Structure formats: structure tokens, C-alpha cells
User: What shape does this take?
Amino acid sequence: MRFGYWMPVFGGWLRNDPDEGPSASWEAVRDLTLRSEEAGWDLSLIAELFLNDIKGVEQPALDAWSTAAALAAVTSSIELMVAVRPNFHHPALLAKQAANIDRISNGRLALNVVSSWWKEEAEQYGLAFDQHDDRYARTAEWLTVVDGLWREQRFSHAGERYQLKNAIVSPKPVRRPVVYAGGESDAAKTLIARQCDAYVMHGDPLDAIAPKIADMKARREEAGGPPMPFGMAAYVIVRDSEAEAQRELERITAMPATPPPGFANFDQWLSGTELERTLKLQEYSVSNRGLRPNLVGTPEQIADRIRAYETIGLDLLLLQMSPQAEEMDRFAATVMAPMRAGKL
Assistant: This one.
């Protein structure tokens, strides 16, 4: 299993705790990333939203791509998976920008392609917002352009949304960045099976993840592509006893009397997706269905659950926790390192 974490570009991951910390700042993410490299983390996912979906739209949110470029220059081993939304980035310009960041990192850049769901955000910035299946049509053409510019010396394209004439991107990436993507509609799965390298999922129990992996493996085989890795988001609470872990779970899922600033965005997100879920109100406290895998308990309990996910074909965990630096250290010392050493 590879272990990754969500970079706190929004200042933390608990929607119900306004005093969680750390701040959404360059210094915080730089220090956390350097600390995570020393602890042996494999990957960091740098989410991209121009508005803060976790702490409320009036709160700061770091830009994903300039943050990634800065981190590429000060790190040495960690993979930087940067989210990118095709309606926010012209593919030719992004291909150039990404190739340069990959060079700075010496081949450690990856993309997480996200077909945007937040209509209000796009409208605020004067950008196109496509309906559901049209979003994936845009993403398919966008990926064709990016990939063509990375692979070919010169690339032309005459499509519905993008036109290029003998364009060049040089220098090329050190290696073609891995393209991760997620989605649960048929349009999303078809696109990912044909054009992406890896499939990432929101958190879910074992019996929900297993058929999703099996389905994508079949789709990938039908599309004629090589085997793809599978990743899943999750929130982790590791404590010395199960009772301690459950007390922390109760704390982070308690809804305050006054709804948090971002709660209205949650309603819009529900209406703008086709995800297969029945979300409980308390799940709002943690994003990306992170509590559903139930990585809550003692190191032994969590290690057993992780191994069960490995058995069904999961390769990567994308973890959230809070307070992030302290909890990442705790997880690395009590779960990640012992599992790798065969001691847990």
C-alpha cells in the first residue's frame, strides 16, 4: 500500500471546527511536506478550488499550481499529485506549466483531473460550467490535447472546444505525469478507463469498493489499456484504545448549533453530482466520504482494515486527519512504518 495525504490548502479538513488550524499558508504546507518526506509518506494530493469549500468561501485557500511549483523546488522524494479542472485551465498552457513543474521536481508530478462540480465558483470567475456529461466530454478533449503536447514534438488539434496549430511544448516532462481521476457516473468511468492512468475513489466500506475496482478493471481491459492502480480517500483516527478513537470521532462529527460557513456549498455539491451514496448529515464534517472506510481505532485495528482493502486491489490511500501534522506523525509511527517493517 502507498500512503498519501491531502495537503491542507484550505487550512484544515474539519468543517465543524473553525479553530482547527493550521492556517492556509505557504509556510504551513511547506513545513508539513518536508516533515512528511522525513516520515516516509509517498504522496501528497494538492486540491484545487479557488473558493474554500472546507472553512467557508470567505476564508483563504491556496492556489494549487503555484503551491506545487514551490514545493517541487524544496522537496526531493514525495510525489506531488495536483488537482486540475479542465474548465479552469487551457490544456496547452497547462501542459507547458506542468512540464516545467515536473522538470523542477525531477519527475515527481502527477495530475488529478477533476471535472468541476461547483457552478457558483465557475460563475464568479467568469468560466464555462458544463452540464454533467458535457463536463466529461470537455475533459476527454482536454486530455487529448495535454497528452499530445507531452508526447509529440509538435501537435495540432481541431476539436469542438480547443484548436491548436503545430504547437510545441519543450522541454518535455522528465516522464509523462501519471493522470489520476475519479467519478462514479458511467460517463466518468468510460473516460477514465480510456484516457487516464489510475482511478481514485471517495471513501466507502470494503463491500462497496470491491465491485467498483472489479468494474473498472473490466472497463480498462475492454478499452485495451494496461492495468491501473486504485486509490481511495479516507479520514484516520488512530489512538491507543478504541474508546479514545471513538471519543475523537464524536468530537469531530458534532454539528454546532449554528451551521458552519460552508454548509450551503454542501447542498449545492449534493445537487451537482451523481455519486452513489446516501450521505448522513454528520458526514458533512469530513469531506470525500472519509469516515466510511472506518479507519478509526487502534493501530492494530487500522492495519487489519488497510490489509483488507489491499486484498481487493486497493493500492493507494489518500488520508485526511486533524490536527494534521501531529496526527500524520502518529499514523506514520504507529501504523505506516510498522506495516512496512512487517511488525503490524
